[in-house]
Design goal:
This protein is mainly alpha-helical. The protein has three helices and two strands, in the order αββαα.
Length: 135
Protein backbone atom coordinates (compact mmCIF):
# COMPACT_ATOMS: atom_id res chain seq x y z
CA UNK A 1 0.00 0.00 0.00
CA UNK A 2 1.24 3.49 -0.83
CA UNK A 3 -0.03 6.71 0.62
CA UNK A 4 0.73 9.99 -1.11
CA UNK A 5 0.00 13.15 0.78
CA UNK A 6 0.32 16.80 -0.08
CA UNK A 7 0.03 19.30 2.69
CA UNK A 8 -0.94 22.78 1.63
CA UNK A 9 0.51 25.13 4.15
CA UNK A 10 -1.14 28.42 5.03
CA UNK A 11 1.12 31.19 6.21
CA UNK A 12 0.48 32.26 9.79
CA UNK A 13 -0.25 35.93 9.09
CA UNK A 14 -3.76 36.27 10.53
CA UNK A 15 -3.98 38.84 13.27
CA UNK A 16 -0.95 40.83 12.12
CA UNK A 17 -3.13 43.67 10.83
CA UNK A 18 -1.66 43.49 7.34
CA UNK A 19 -4.96 44.71 5.92
CA UNK A 20 -4.12 48.10 7.46
CA UNK A 21 -0.85 48.35 5.51
CA UNK A 22 0.25 48.40 1.88
CA UNK A 23 1.73 44.89 2.29
CA UNK A 24 0.28 42.55 -0.34
CA UNK A 25 -0.97 39.13 0.72
CA UNK A 26 -1.66 36.07 -1.45
CA UNK A 27 -4.88 34.03 -1.09
CA UNK A 28 -3.01 31.49 1.10
CA UNK A 29 -2.03 34.27 3.52
CA UNK A 30 1.61 34.48 2.48
CA UNK A 31 3.21 37.88 2.03
CA UNK A 32 4.32 38.99 -1.44
CA UNK A 33 7.99 39.98 -1.58
CA UNK A 34 10.57 40.88 -4.17
CA UNK A 35 13.78 38.94 -4.81
CA UNK A 36 15.37 40.43 -1.67
CA UNK A 37 12.37 39.48 0.50
CA UNK A 38 11.26 43.11 0.82
CA UNK A 39 7.51 43.69 0.85
CA UNK A 40 5.68 46.49 -0.99
CA UNK A 41 6.47 48.66 2.04
CA UNK A 42 10.10 49.84 1.86
CA UNK A 43 12.40 48.32 4.48
CA UNK A 44 9.78 45.80 5.64
CA UNK A 45 10.87 42.22 4.94
CA UNK A 46 9.05 38.89 5.16
CA UNK A 47 11.14 35.84 6.06
CA UNK A 48 10.34 32.26 6.95
CA UNK A 49 6.95 30.65 6.55
CA UNK A 50 5.12 33.95 6.00
CA UNK A 51 6.65 34.63 2.56
CA UNK A 52 5.28 31.50 0.91
CA UNK A 53 8.63 29.83 0.30
CA UNK A 54 9.73 26.36 1.33
CA UNK A 55 8.90 25.80 4.97
CA UNK A 56 12.18 24.55 6.40
CA UNK A 57 14.14 26.03 9.28
CA UNK A 58 17.30 26.23 7.19
CA UNK A 59 15.42 28.10 4.43
CA UNK A 60 14.32 30.65 7.03
CA UNK A 61 17.96 30.97 8.09
CA UNK A 62 18.92 31.52 4.47
CA UNK A 63 16.16 34.15 4.21
CA UNK A 64 17.95 35.92 7.05
CA UNK A 65 21.22 35.75 5.10
CA UNK A 66 19.56 37.52 2.17
CA UNK A 67 18.01 40.25 4.32
CA UNK A 68 21.17 40.72 6.37
CA UNK A 69 23.19 41.32 3.21
CA UNK A 70 20.61 43.77 1.88
CA UNK A 71 20.66 45.70 5.15
CA UNK A 72 24.44 45.96 4.80
CA UNK A 73 24.27 47.20 1.21
CA UNK A 74 25.02 43.92 -0.57
CA UNK A 75 22.27 42.67 -2.92
CA UNK A 76 24.43 40.05 -4.64
CA UNK A 77 22.60 37.11 -3.02
CA UNK A 78 18.86 36.97 -3.69
CA UNK A 79 16.07 34.42 -4.02
CA UNK A 80 16.80 34.19 -7.72
CA UNK A 81 20.27 32.77 -7.19
CA UNK A 82 19.51 30.56 -4.19
CA UNK A 83 20.48 27.07 -5.31
CA UNK A 84 20.34 23.49 -4.11
CA UNK A 85 18.00 23.62 -1.15
CA UNK A 86 18.06 20.18 0.49
CA UNK A 87 15.07 18.50 2.03
CA UNK A 88 14.50 15.33 3.98
CA UNK A 89 11.41 13.38 4.90
CA UNK A 90 12.06 11.34 8.00
CA UNK A 91 10.57 8.02 7.04
CA UNK A 92 12.23 4.61 6.87
CA UNK A 93 14.33 4.73 4.82
CA UNK A 94 14.75 8.53 4.83
CA UNK A 95 13.91 10.35 1.62
CA UNK A 96 16.27 13.23 0.88
CA UNK A 97 17.04 15.45 -2.06
CA UNK A 98 19.56 18.16 -2.90
CA UNK A 99 20.48 19.71 -6.23
CA UNK A 100 18.75 19.43 -9.56
CA UNK A 101 15.93 17.05 -10.27
CA UNK A 102 16.35 14.69 -13.20
CA UNK A 103 13.99 16.78 -15.33
CA UNK A 104 15.83 20.03 -14.58
CA UNK A 105 19.21 18.38 -15.17
CA UNK A 106 18.17 17.08 -18.58
CA UNK A 107 16.83 20.49 -19.61
CA UNK A 108 19.77 22.48 -18.20
CA UNK A 109 22.89 20.37 -18.63
CA UNK A 110 23.60 18.83 -22.04
CA UNK A 111 24.78 15.22 -21.94
CA UNK A 112 23.79 14.86 -18.28
CA UNK A 113 24.05 11.36 -16.88
CA UNK A 114 22.28 10.00 -13.87
CA UNK A 115 21.92 6.76 -11.98
CA UNK A 116 19.01 5.40 -10.01
CA UNK A 117 19.46 2.80 -7.32
CA UNK A 118 16.89 1.07 -5.17
CA UNK A 119 16.91 1.32 -1.42
CA UNK A 120 17.98 -2.35 -1.31
CA UNK A 121 21.04 -1.58 -3.46
CA UNK A 122 21.83 1.42 -1.28
CA UNK A 123 21.49 -0.57 1.94
CA UNK A 124 23.94 -3.22 0.75
CA UNK A 125 26.49 -0.62 -0.36
CA UNK A 126 26.54 1.22 2.97
CA UNK A 127 27.19 0.07 6.46
CA UNK A 128 25.75 1.43 9.63
CA UNK A 129 27.83 0.97 12.76
CA UNK A 130 25.99 -0.95 15.46
CA UNK A 131 28.13 0.45 18.26
CA UNK A 132 26.47 2.65 20.87
CA UNK A 133 29.83 4.00 22.02
CA UNK A 134 29.63 7.76 22.47
CA UNK A 135 25.83 7.85 22.51
Amino acid sequence: MHCYMRQVAKANTEGLGLEHTDIQVRPNGSIVTDDTLMTAVPNVFAVGDVNGGQQFTYVSLDDFRIVNRVLHGDESYKLGNRAHVPYSTFITPPLSHVGFTRRRSESTIPKCSYRCITSEQYATSCSEPRSTWGV
